[in-house]
Amino acid sequence: MRIAVFVLSFIWLVNGELLEADQDASVPEDWILVEGVEPLEEVELTFALKQQNVKQMEELLKLVSDPDSHQYGKHLSLEEVAALVQPSQLTEKVVRNWLQSHGVKNCHTVVTRDFLQCVMTVQVAEALLPGAKFHRYSRDSHTVLRSTSLYSIHKDVYQHLDFVGGVHRFPPKGKDISKGWEGARQSALGYHLGVTPSVIRSRYNLTEKDVGTATNNSQAVAQFLEQYYNPADLAEFMSLFAGGFTHMSAVERVVGTQGGGKAGIEASLDVEYIMSSGANISTWVFTNPGRHETQEPFLQWMLLLSNMSAVPWVHTISYGDDEDSLSDAYMNRINIEFMKAGLRGISMLFASGDSGAGCRHLTKERNTFRPSFPASSPYVTTVGGTSFKNPFKLTYEVTDYISGGGFSNVFAMPDYQGGAVQAYLKNVQPLPPQTYFNITGRAYPDLAALSDNYWVVTNRVPVPWVSGTSASTPVVGGMLSLINDQRFLKGLPSLGFINPRLYKLQGKGLYDVTEGCHLSCLDDKVEGKGFCASPSWDPVTGWGTPNYPALLKALMD
């Protein structure tokens, strides 16, 4: 499926002032300038305050996620996380005094105190951020307030902030969110009967008894960019495709407000397959169309997680962007938010993307692969995609050529995966030229599932041939929710950040995918081929796809 783009404005020190590092303040072609903005109109900006004890938090996450550690599974509450990371009193004082000196008083924070969201007039915002000039832009029926000029921040404040959200970036358009990532595509194999919940459950050995029963279990999907699910679609989908097992036909809780209009195929896919894979488990949907025209929905979701003591144990998200389009400062701060979730025992699953290794054209003569974020984050579990070898039958799986994967250009390879990745680099030949990828970077995906030719019900119509890692991600998420369910019934903690344990299993409980390659740059050096699957871990399908009963057994201590 399409991978959504969320980019936050952030700041850096230049000649004693903070200038926005996201230098591209141009207006995308599909956005039209409607009008100027009245000085007394309101905007809402988000200020990310510098956190404390980040290194300590990283070390603690390793301990609670390592099955060989005596602290394994001893997760923290939100309040305990807050006590660890909340900004210093000086940081809070400097930022608040700066805001109040401009008359900004309508602010609210989160439990962890590391974000401030403030409502102010355009006039005040432009005084607070000298150089900013807000205008209203329109695309279809959607309007946003944005500044297309660079701004500065006082030098005494810069060291206390990571970024300011809600100033420059325009929401991407659904059908061209990322040029390299195809999104929902119609398969050339039109005769494929299609993947349904019964196919998923058969392939991964889920029986009719493999459904949720624990009362304290829950799972969630998050939807952005005007993507909404329709409760009637979900009920129709379950009626058509979920007859062989106990299931729920309604979402337990919607956090946020769903927008109007037609249901999005992305949101429909996410909800329908996490609820049929993780059957009979309470499911939440996080949604945020935005109260203000300056809000950024991905950031809103992150803030919600920092402000809710009780949230679902598994979250699956089918959105991301090319690493090179984001700042290191932004990605590093979002990584800290993922660490906070892991410390609380929350499993974060992200789709690996639908552009294979990707391709970035540096010059006319030079290309490189193009890793994606948050797929490349060391603190999330990234899910790739596979296809059936035989399109007519429940056969073994091979690589889906669109399955996103590769090596981060920003984040170093984490310790938990070093052995597996080095074995791949040593044993698989030939590899793509090393000028195309960072041999020392965080490698992904971590595991995979079927991502080709799904049936989805959207706007009350069954739709075939929906494909992408947006399909495989909720399928894996649902199965992890089922494992959590069994763990809770035995008094065990949630799986939490699963990667360190997953890599120690070395493929146990998973079907190894060893055939096929994914796509990459169409040039004379790699000729469209990225990395290839191999025995054990590989940067196309990770450790492979779930064999549910074996994976359950491996994760039940």
UniProtKB/TrEMBL annotation:
List the catalytic activities from the record.
Answer: Release of an N-terminal tripeptide from a polypeptide, but also has endopeptidase activity
**Any idea which UniProt keywords this protein has?**
Autocatalytic cleavage, Calcium, Disulfide bond, Glycoprotein, Hydrolase, Lysosome, Metal-binding, Protease, Serine protease, Signal, Zymogen
Enzyme Commission code(s) on record: 3.4.14.9
One of the record's GO molecular function terms:
serine-type endopeptidase activity
Q: Which Pfam families does UniProt cross-reference here?
A: Pro-kuma_activ
Query: Where found in the cell?
Result: Lysosome
- Classification via Gene3D superfamilies: Peptidase S8/S53 domain
Instruction: Report one GO cellular component.
Output: lysosome
The highest taxon in the source lineage is Eukaryota
- Cofactors: Ca(2+)
Q: Which residues form the active site?
A: E266 (charge relay system), D270 (charge relay system), S470 (charge relay system)
> Which N-terminal stretch is annotated as signal sequence?
1-16
List the InterPro entries.
Answer: Peptidase_S8/S53_dom_sf, S53_propep, Sedolisin_dom, Tripeptidyl-peptidase_I
Q: Does the keyword Metal-binding apply?
A: yes
Q: Where is the Peptidase S53 domain?
A: 194-557
Q: Which GO terms describe its biological process?
A: central nervous system development; proteolysis
Functionally, this protein is described as follows: Lysosomal serine protease with tripeptidyl-peptidase I activity. May act as a non-specific lysosomal peptidase which generates tripeptides from the breakdown products produced by lysosomal proteinases. Requires substrates with an unsubstituted N-terminus.
- What name does this protein carry? Tripeptidyl-peptidase 1
Q: Which organism is it from?
A: Cyprinus carpio carpio
